[in-house]
Design goal:
Largest sheet: 7 strands, mixed
Strand content: 25-35%
Strand order of the largest sheet: 3-2-1-4-11-6-12
Mean pLDDT: 88
Number of helices: 6
Radius of gyration: 16 Å
Oligomer: single chain
Structural class: alpha/beta
Number of strands: 13
Distance between the termini: 36 Å
Low-confidence stretches: 126-132
Length: 205
């Protein structure tokens, strides 16, 4: 099955090189493509993304400026993607070297998956070592949660669910997507080794 990595961006020229380098260094050996869905950047994010074309497989830059929300950028990226499996992360995060491989393997057993997120600022882990990250999928009541910056989903399920709800405020659309999957009886798979490091907004790194 082919894989599409969807990377929503907005004024991320300072951070996106780290994420692009992490994606370029992935251990995954099968076919995959990168979809950069730009949510209306006014800095040099687009040119920085385009400058990495030679290092990344099948990169595509999508204009996703219609609605200024990550959910819109993710949806536009999914529409442009050709993969059977859709993986989502963010421009100011850094994925682990086997992130694509881990989430893709997880999607063999579950049609929607997520993994741990470790926060960092100025190159330092925040809130303890990676050994202290969650060992089980996060939940609220009966519902599994997922992180939009570290998730995978089959193309079939994504469009069956209608994608991310663009009417919701940032931070809720990924929770909403997980709940809608749960209500269909679909559990969110937990892939412990698919680690994403999330940069804190006030990081000076």
């Amino acid at each position: 099955m082919t894989v599409s990595v969807i990377l929503p961006t907005l004024n991320a020229e300072r951070w996106i090189p780290d994420q692009l380098a992490a994606l370029a260094a992935q251990s995954y050996s099968d076919e995959w493509e990168l979809i950069v869905a730009d949510n209306g950047s006014t800095d040099n994010t687009r040119s920085v993304a385009l400058s990495s074309r030679s290092r990344l497989p099948r990169p595509t830059l999508v204009d996703a400026a219609g609605v200024r929300r990550p959910s819109h950028a993710r949806n536009q990226g999914a529409l442009a993607a050709s993969g059977d499996l859709l993986l989502f992360t963010d421009a100011d995060d850094i994925v682990c070297p086997d992130w694509i491989a881990r989430l893709s393997d997880g999607l063999r057993d579950s049609s929607i998956v997520t993994g741990p997120v470790g926060h960092f600022a100025d190159g330092r882990t925040v809130g303890g070592s990676e050994a202290q990250r969650p060992r089980e999928r996060p939940r609220i009541g009966p519902f599994d949660l997922l992180t939009g910056g570290n998730m995978g989903i089959t193309r079939e399920l994504f469009f069956a669910l209608g994608g991310f709800d663009e009417s919701l405020r940032s931070g809720w659309s990924d929770f909403d997507l997980a709940v809608r999957a749960n209500l269909r009886g679909i559990r969110v798979g937990w892939v412990e080794q698919a680690i994403v490091r999330r940069r804190r907004p006030n990081s000076g790194a």
